Amino acid sequence: MSADLTDLHLLRELEPVVEKNLNRHLSMHKNWNPHDYIPWSDGKNYYALGGQDWEPGQSKLSDVAQVAMVQNLVTEDNLPSYHREIAMNFGMDGAWGQWVNRWTAEENRHGIALRDYLVVTRAVDPVELELLRLEVVNRGFSPGQNHQGDLFAESLFDSILYVTFQELATRISHRNTGKACNDPIADQLLAKVSADENLHMIFYRDVSEAGLEIAPNQAMKSLHRVLRNFQMPGFQVPEFRRKAVMIAVGGVYDPRIHLDDVVMPVLKKWRIFERDDFTGEAAKMRDDLALLIKELEVACEKFEVSKQRQLDREARTGKRVTARELHTTAGTLTMSRR
User: Fold this and answer.
1) Cys-Cys link to 157, which of 41, 222, 268, 281 (CB 3.0-4.6 A)?
2) Is 29 annotated for ligand binding?
3) Is the pLDDT confidence value at 190 over 50?
4) Domain-by-domain residue ranges, the chain?
C-alpha cells in the first residue's frame, strides 16, 4: 500500500475541483435577505426601553419547536469555531480560501435570521438565549472530539467528509424545525436556511468524491473514523442529550432520519459498497461500515419502539416523555458510537 498523501498534496490535487464546485455554487445560489423573513410588526420594546420583558406565555411555539429552534440557533452561533477549523484545514489561499470566506458569509446570516425571529416574536427567553450563546461559543468546537473528550487524528479528509454529513443533517434539522413551528413565516425562513445548507452539502460531497478517486484507501480511513465517531456540532450545547431526545421524539431529527436521510444517501452517492479500489485495512474498514449500518438499523428499531411506548404512556397519563425514560437510545440520538 502506498503511503498516505500529505494534506498539502491533497489541497493542491483538489484545488481545481474546489474551484469548479465553487463556481457552480455561486451560479446555483439564490440570494435572500434575512430581514425579509422576520415579522417586524410583531415586535415591541423590552424593559430597558420602557417595554415589557419576556414571559413564557408570550411564546406561540410548542415545547419541541422552542427546543429545536434554540438548538439550531446556538449551533449556528458557534460559527467562529467552524470558520477556524476549516480555515486551518483548508487554508486561505486560492479557491480553498475563497470557499472558506464565502461559506462563512452565508452561514453567518443563519444565526442572524434565527435570532431576529425568536426575539421579535418573543418565542423564547432572550436573556437565557444570550447566556447560552456565550456559553456555547466559549466552549468552542472540534469535529474530531468525541463524547469522551478524546481527539481522533484530524486530516483534510476528516474535515471534508465530516462536513458532508453534518451539512446534510443540518439541512434536514432546519427544514423539519420550520415545519414543527406551525408558523408559515418560520417555515419560509428555515426553508431558505435549509437551501443554503443543501448547497454547502453538495459542495463538500462532490469534493469528497473527488478525494475518493485520488486516494481511496486514505479517504476510507477518514470516512470510517468520521462515521464511527460522528456527532452533530451542537453536542457542545449544555443539556444536549436531553434536548436531542426531545427533538427526536418530536420527529425533527431522530435515528431513522440520520440513517435513511443522511448516512445512506451519501454512501450510495459515493458507491462505497460497490467500489473495488479499497485494499488492505481500508477494505476491512469498508466492511466495518456495513456492520455500523446494521447497528444503526437496530438502534432505530429500538428507539421507535421506545418512543411509541413513551408516547402511549403520555397519552394515558399526560406525563411528558423525559430524557431519563429514553436513556437507552440517548447514545444513538447524540450520534456517538462509542
Assistant:
1) 222
2) no
3) yes
4) 7-39+58-336
Please tell me the pTM assigned to this model.
Answer: 0.90
Query: Please, are residues 161 and 223 in contact by the beta-carbon 8 Å criterion?
Result: yes
DSSP secondary structure string, 118-185?
HHHTT-S-HHHHHHHHHHHHHH---TTB-TTS-BPPP-HHHHHHHHHHHHHHHHHHHHHHHHHTT-HH
Query: Annotation-wise, does 19 bind a ligand?
Result: no
Residue 13 annotated as part of some ligand binding site: no
Q: Which fold has domain 7-39+58-336?
A: Ribonucleotide Reductase, subunit A (1.10.620)
The CA-CA-CA angle for residues 293, 296, 301, to 5°, reads: 130
CA distance 14 to 87: 16
Average pLDDT, the chain: 89
Q: What is the 3-state secondary structure (H, E, C) of 29-66?
A: CCCCCHHHHCCHHHCCCCHHHCCCCCCHHHCCCCHHHH
pLDDT at 336: 39
**Which residue(s) pair with 295 in the sheet?**
none
Q: Is the confidence at residue 49, as pLDDT, over 60?
A: yes
Per the listing, cell 397519563 goes with 317
Q: Please report which confidence band the pLDDT of residue 91 belongs to, taking 50, 70 and 90 as the band edges.
A: very high
> Which range (144-153, 166-175, 187-196) has the least confidence?
144-153
Q: Convert the pLDDT of each residue in 229-246 to its tens digit.
A: 998 887 778 888 888 888
**Largest Cα–Cα separation, the chain:** 71
- What number is the average pLDDT over the span 313-328? 60
User: Is 107 known to sit in a ligand binding site?
Assistant: yes
Q: Is 110 annotated as belonging to a binding site?
A: yes
Cβ proximity of 95 and 15 under 8 Å: yes
Q: Is the pLDDT of residue 335 over 70?
A: no
- Using a 10 angstrom Cβ sphere, with 0-12 exposed, 13-18 middle and 19 or more buried, the burial of residue 212 is buried
